[in-house]
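Workshop exercise sheet. Pairs work together: one partner reads the sequence aloud, the other fills in the structure field after running the prediction. Swap roles for the next sheet.
Pair: D.N. / O.F.
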Amino acid sequence: MDIKEVQNLIKFVAKSGVSEVKIENKDFKLTIKNKPEYVTSAPVATTVAAIPASIPPAAVPAATVPATPAAEVPKNEIDESKYITIKAPIIGTFYRKPSPDKPPYVEVGDTIKEGDVVCIIEAMKLFNEIESEVSGKIVKVLVDDATPVEFDQPLFLVEPM
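Structure field:
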């Protein structure tokens, strides 16, 4: 099982709504935990030993996991229904900048186009650039820098162009 398969399994477990999944094999042990609604830490994925072939995702039921966004702009100032949401494609730590001494990828008011990098999500020591799937203007940043995010959690509101 490679890192991409582990990330896909983490996404699947996050969607499923189960609180914990443990997979044990003679060669490895994998535990994925989803946070309850009242806990503020992100779901944790831990691997121990080597990771071999692949694991069938059919062993995990499907459901949804609620997201808890942090807002930069008060909610009463924006009608969110007319905007497109850029969501986290993976579980990890959200970063607005490529490094601490660089400016953020995007700010409120910036115009973006499809394929532009809008943030980074660190997952399992890998920094994944998150690209926009829409073109438009950033209206709201929904997550604070360096905070944990869940799969499918809203990150940005974009006014489509």
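Discussion prompt: The mean pLDDT is 77. What would you look at next?
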